[in-house]
């Protein structure tokens, strides 16, 4: 394959499972930047790119919500890269006036400073009443008291012309202090991320447009022993800037049946799962729908040592490393994303991986 031609690649780091890389405030962005340079087209989710007040805008990175990535990997959605989205903002009525005003100032700041197309802004009819929880495995998750206000506000935003939606919901301040302290010191799980995923999943499933979430909290006391990976969340009053930037260039979500009904639609810019050259995921977090969808299609799987609390590995899936075990699917284990980038370049250039290691075995005579 010509290196000038992009080699679409999926980068998956599931949220709420405490991965060493990607389990914190945008700490996977350097890895995503490297992999985007190696592939020319990196498809990843907000959990990887969101750094609260910090963000990185790269035309080679496609910002795709997790439910959409699952559907994409299963062939139920195509992606159409976009120069600019009109980002509607959905605000939970449970936000106090001061916290709400901080978020409105972020919106105006991103419009005036970054030139983003943002609006309209709509508040839910009633507070969403978010609750966060931890599963028996230690993964974070949560729920809303009622979905109707969320869906109703999302529908109205879409009717008013929004092509993407940023969601701001009030999260409880009574998160267990031990868990919060552990997270701020780089040892725990992000207790809000699991519920964030639920909120964005519900909206994308209902509206089929890009969505991402920014939790709203009351300010916390300064922490002297803060882990650098959690520092991005301490820099400002909100988590909204990165979400607005990410959604501003998020790809459109196109259903295959739309193409059948619109034969004149320009298909040249669409990205489908058939074009994906590799999927990259942490060892121990291989049980998600996107990874399984790629395995089903025989897409090369690069497994990175990136510990978290999930333990679904290649052995659990019945897949061996370096072999061709499922429709000639190749699997590779690497210790970090630096080496994953080298593998991507090899695949993109069509260089046999076996030729890059020593010793080189002789070709057997059959």
Explain the layout of strands and helices:
Layout: E1 9-11, H1 29-39, E2 42-44, H2 46-49, E3 61-63, H3 66-73, E4 78-80, E5 87-91, H4 97-114, E6 118-123, E7 130-134, E8 140-144, H5 148-159, E9 164-170, H6 177-184, H7 193-207, E10 211-216, H8 240-248, E11 252-254, H9 256-261, E12 278-282, H10 289-296, E13 301-304, H11 314-317, E14 331-334, H12 337-349
Parallel strand pairs: 1-2, 1-12, 2-3, 5-6, 5-9, 9-10, 12-13, 13-14
Antiparallel strand pairs: 4-11, 7-8
Describe this structure in words.
There is one protein chain. The chain has 366 residues and is an alpha/beta fold. The chain folds into 2 domains: 9-81 and 254-356, Rossmann fold, CATH 3.40.50; 87-247, Rossmann fold, CATH 3.40.50. The chain is 32% helix and 17% strand. The protein has helices spanning 29-39, 46-49, 66-73, 97-114, 148-159, 177-184, 193-207, 240-248, 256-261, 289-296, 314-317, 337-349, and strands at residues 9-11, 42-44, 61-63, 78-80, 87-91, 118-123, 130-134, 140-144, 164-170, 211-216, 252-254, 278-282, 301-304, 331-334. The chain has a 6-stranded parallel beta sheet with strand order 3-2-1-12-13-14, with helices on both faces. Strands 6-5-9-10 form a 4-stranded parallel beta sheet, with helices on both faces. The longest helix is centred in the N-terminal third of the chain and has 18 residues, at 97-114. The two termini are 29 Å apart.
> How many discrete domains?
2
Mean pLDDT: 89
CATH class of the largest domain: Alpha Beta
Q: Tell me the structural class.
A: alpha/beta
| Share of helix, binned | 25-40%
Number of strands: 14
Q: Characterize the biggest β-sheet.
A: 6 strands, parallel
Fraction in beta strands:
15-25%
Parts with pLDDT < 50 across at least 5 consecutive residues: 323-327
Q: Give the strand order, joined by hyphens, for the main sheet.
A: 3-2-1-12-13-14
CATH architecture annotation of the largest domain? 3-Layer(aba) Sandwich
Number of helices: 12
């Amino acid at each position: 394959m010509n290196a000038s031609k992009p080699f679409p690649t999926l980068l998956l780091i599931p949220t709420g499972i405490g991965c060493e890389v990607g389990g914190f405030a945008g700490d996977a962005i350097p890895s995503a930047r490297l992999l985007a340079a190696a592939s020319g087209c990196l498809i990843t989710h907000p959990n990887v790119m969101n750094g609260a007040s910090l963000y990185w805008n790269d035309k080679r990175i496609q910002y795709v919500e997790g439910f959409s990535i699952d559907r994409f990997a299963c062939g139920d959605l195509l992606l159409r890269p976009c120069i600019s989205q009109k980002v509607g903002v959905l605000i939970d009525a449970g936000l106090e006036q001061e916290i709400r005003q901080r978020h409105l100032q972020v919106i105006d700041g991103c419009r005036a400073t970054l030139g983003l197309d943002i609006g309209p802004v709509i508040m839910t009819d009633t507070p969403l009443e978010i609750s966060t929880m931890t599963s028996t495995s230690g993964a974070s998750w949560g729920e809303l008291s009622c979905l109707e206000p969320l869906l109703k506000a999302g529908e109205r935003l879409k009717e008013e012309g929004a092509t993407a939606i940023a969601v701001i919901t009030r999260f409880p301040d009574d998160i267990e202090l031990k868990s919060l302290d552990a997270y701020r010191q780089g040892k725990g799980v992000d207790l809000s991320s699991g519920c964030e995923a639920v909120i964005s999943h519900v909206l994308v499933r209902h509206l089929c447009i890009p969505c991402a979430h920014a939790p709203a909290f009351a300010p916390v006391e300064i922490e002297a022993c803060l882990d650098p990976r959690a520092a991005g969340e301490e820099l400002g009053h909100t988590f909204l800037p990165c979400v607005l930037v990410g959604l501003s260039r998020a790809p459109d979500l196109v259903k295959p049946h739309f193409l059948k009904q619109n034969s004149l639609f320009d298909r040249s810019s669409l990205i489908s799962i058939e074009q994906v050259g590799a999927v990259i995921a942490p060892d121990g977090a291989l049980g998600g729908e996107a990874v399984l969808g790629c395995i089903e299609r025989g897409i090369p799987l690069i497994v990175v040592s990136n510990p978290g609390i999930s333990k679904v590995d290649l052995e659990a899936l019945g897949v061996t490393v370096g072999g061709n075990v499922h429709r000639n699917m190749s699997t590779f284990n690497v210790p970090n994303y630096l080496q994953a980038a080298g593998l991507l370049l090899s695949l993109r250039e069509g260089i046999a991986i076996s030729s890059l290691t020593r010793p080189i075995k002789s070709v057997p005579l059959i």
